[in-house]
Design goal:
Strand order of the largest sheet: 1-2-6-5-4-3
Distance between the termini: 24 Å
CATH class: Mainly Beta
Number of domains: 1
Structural class: mainly beta
Low-confidence stretches: none
Number of strands: 6
Largest sheet: 6 strands, antiparallel
Oligomer: single chain
Number of helices: 1
Radius of gyration: 13 Å
Length: about 100
């Protein structure tokens, strides 16, 4: 997400992504936008407090699952428009 200053990282060989302390994330129900419980799938939302003078909150159309202080990225929500890196990933998946 180029709109954000900070990034989420995984440990080598890991699938779970972690954000730095200044970039909390939430997993939201796609219909109500209420936060879901750990282990439930929802839309990923990020607050990047390092973004001074720019957008600090991004509600993505990416699905994920919270697992404690980390999340697992599951892909795009059904019907979401493919953008940016998603185009490349989608093309690779079709090959």
């Amino acid at each position: 997400m180029t709109e954000l200053t900070s990034q989420a990282y995984s440990r080598p060989g890991g699938e779970l992504l972690r954000t730095p302390p200044w970039m909390p994330f939430r997993v939201l129900d796609p219909e109500t936008l209420e936060e879901v419980e750990d282990g439930r799938t929802g839309l990923l939302s990020f607050f990047d407090l390092a973004n001074l003078g720019s957008v600090c909150h991004v509600l993505t159309e990416d699905l994920g699952v919270r697992e404690g202080d980390a999340f697992r990225l599951l892909g795009r929500a059904t019907g979401a428009e493919l953008r940016g890196c998603s185009l490349t990933a989608e093309e690779l998946g079709a090959a």
